[in-house]
Amino acid sequence: xxxxxxxxxxxxxxxxxxxxxxxxxxxxxxxxxxxxxxxxxxxxxxxxxxxxxxxxxxxxxxxxxxxxxxxxxxxxxxxxxxxxxxxxxxxxxxxxxxxxxxxxxxxxxxxxxxxxxxxxxxxxxxxxxxxxxxxxxxxxxxxxxxxxxxxxxxxxxxxxxxxxxxxxxxxxxxxxxxxxxxxxxxxxxxxxxxxxxxxxxxxxxxxxxxxxxxxxxxxxxxxxxxxxxxxxxxxxxxxxxxxx
Length: 244
What we know:
Blueprint: E1 5-7, H1 14-20, E2 28-33, E3 54-61, H2 71-87, E4 92-94, E5 98-101, E6 104-113, E7 120-127, H3 132-137, H4 158-181, H5 187-193, E8 200-203, E9 206-213, E10 219-223, E11 226-230, E12 235-237
Parallel strand pairs: 1-2
Antiparallel strand pairs: 2-3, 3-7, 4-5, 5-6, 6-7, 8-9, 8-12, 9-10, 10-11
């Protein structure tokens, strides 16, 4: 068992806790809980706690990275692999880093720079066993959990297993390649899972057909006025939700 993976019974935010306790971690470590009371998603969206029914996990990376901007894409592959190993499910990735199962959002990821300016925290929320009522009450019509998708979940064992596997294999082992070579070695695997490709997408400033993800992690969109390479902002994908 990796001793650099810390468990908290409850916490306001695993990302916040990790940033405040960087000295507790070596080059790669993690903190996780099943009760996060004040988390947040991308663009500052609030996170609704599902005590005991989800995994709230933050990886801490304290090594220099050659290509920090693609960390969200790298992280999405780490989670996809962990879910495949534990549950034998094949999640798709909505660029840049949301994981979908059967057309509904299962995982959200938020990457941030730590206060020291050199380290990174990667917050990951995995919906394990929330009922439909949770997503209805939170006004998340496109959200789902593994249990809702018919996947057997062991709430006593799975959070620890996922936290350990993500840390040891998703981040620590894979970082040997990613920290020096960046996204390029992972690009084909990412593209194979990317639900955006070949679909109409809208982005800040335009719309078109997503054709590729380049070596810098940018979404390459073919538009009426030419090719656009999108790296920041929201991208919506027509027809993905509810589609298997």
